[in-house]
């Protein structure tokens, strides 16, 4: 995480995205709920090109996670709605 603020960002070294810059992204977009804006469990590291394609859409994966986080107390009933 420290490298994200420096001039040499981390890059992926293996697999189909080898050589690409790693980018931090919200799993559930912050435009959907401010409750998850600064929570580490709502972040994932993905290739920059994948992040650019993803946009701010909410799909089945995001809905499933929100439903799991609600009973755990990580997302309120209001925010789930």
Key traits:
2 strands, 81 residues, alpha+beta, 3 helices, elongated, 12% strand
From the alpha carbons, calculate the radius of gyration and give it in angstroms. Answer: 14 Å
- The DSSP helix count reads 3
DSSP, total strands: 2
Through-space gap between termini: 32 Å
Report strand %: 5-15%
Low-confidence stretches: none
Order of helices and strands: EEHHH
Relative helix content: 25-40%
Provide mean pLDDT, rounded.
Answer: 84
- Total domain modules: 1
Gross geometry: elongated
Helices and strands in order:
Elements: E1 22-26, E2 43-47, H1 48-54, H2 60-69, H3 77-80
Antiparallel strand pairs: 1-2
What does it look like?
The chain contains three helices and two strands. The chain has one domain (2-80). The termini are far apart. Helices cover 26% and strands 12% of the residues. The chain is α+β, with helices and mostly antiparallel strands and 81 residues long. The mean pLDDT is 84.
């Amino acid at each position: 995480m420290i490298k994200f603020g420096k001039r040499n960002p981390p890059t992926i070294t293996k697999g189909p995205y080898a050589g690409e810059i790693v980018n931090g992204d919200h799993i559930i977009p912050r435009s959907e709920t401010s409750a998850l804006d600064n929570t580490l469990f709502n972040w994932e590291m993905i290739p920059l090109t994948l992040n650019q394609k993803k946009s701010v859409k909410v799909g089945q994966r995001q809905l499933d996670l929100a439903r799991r986080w609600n009973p755990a107390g990580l997302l309120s009933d209001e925010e789930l709605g």
